[in-house]
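Might I ask for a little of your time on a matter of protein folding? The record follows directly beneath this note:
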Amino acid sequence: MSIPQTVVKAHATGNDFVIYADPDGTFEPTPDEVRFLCDRHFGIGGDGLLRLTHPRFVSDLDADTVARLESDGAEWFMDYRNADGSLAEMCGNGTRATALFAQRLGYADGVGGEPLRLGTRAGVKTLVSLGDVAPCGHDVFRVDMGEWKRGETDAFTVTIPGTDGSARGTFVDMGNPHVVSVIGDGVSSLPAVDELNLVVKPVVNPVLESDQNAEFVRIDATDEASDHGSATMRVNERGVGETLSCGTGLCATGVTLLAKTGIHHWTITVRGGTLLVDVSDDRVFLTGSATLVGRVELL
């Protein structure tokens, strides 16, 4: 196998991963190995695989991309693969799990130290270690998720096969593609967020060639005076299915909610926990916890 004998199980608000360090670039996984490791019955189980390595050891990056990442201060790279073995541009929760893993290995500073500049296929993401922060929990990181791009509000129709009704969706590019639907907005005829069957992959029209993550969100409260709102989100991720959390999906949700409400700061609850999303005119910041569960020795 082209993976090390010892790997680590990690999660960030329930978005779970198999993760390992590859500082010498000798353990680039094959799609079959990713599928095996992420299989919840025959492998370890996870929504995806994270390989912590240097940019120059990632075979799908060209020389110009490697040079750009390194010039932007990214000594380390998060090589993320979906559970189906496909490459992924970005995983917001994965950056926090990777940062905590890097801390424990001595590759990144702890609370009060220098931020970690982590390379991804969507560019360099900067993570600040905050320690314990309510309501997020332990080992919390604030991630500068970078620039966002949003399409026309409610330009897509979103349905779920086997479920009556439809919703309008908004496209958001967070380095990977998302379509976000607000449920209970007077337009959606889908069931309540808690009742949706997201084991079934949602259908988005017009079709996106890239496929997409599909988020469904309920606005729970807003306060214009404090510029703060709270919401509940669920997500079906391309190449994975429903997950307990999706970092880029949370950011895409914050961008969509800003467009609909004018509110910039959100506390968003997903099935795996609670996170903070702060949206400016050109950037998104995501704050949440990460957990290393244990080491696993492959036989």
